[in-house]
Write a structure and sequence with these properties.
With about 90 residues, the protein is α+β, with helices and mostly antiparallel strands. The protein is built from four helices and three strands; from the N terminus they run H-H-E-H-E-E-H.
Length: about 90
Amino acid sequence: MTERFFFDTDEAAQEAAKILGGLGKAARSLLEECVETQGISRQKVSAAARALENEGFVFVRGENKIFDSDQIEITPSLAGEEALLFLEASEVTN
């Protein structure tokens, strides 16, 4: 069983994992990279990053800065980390 910190129930975490899986390979790869490094920098926000942000799986910072506008920081949220863990766990059991 996968340990939870963000989600109240396993069902909620499994639903988040299902949503993450539905976002596609690019979004999952981006979240995996964010979780592994605890944050990445990019010059612009990709569609995958925007989809992850819209679901609450990552935080995107630096978009509206006048200076250093070429550096966007993408960091994982606890919800994103747990969704990824539950998605990986569900793939192992299937």
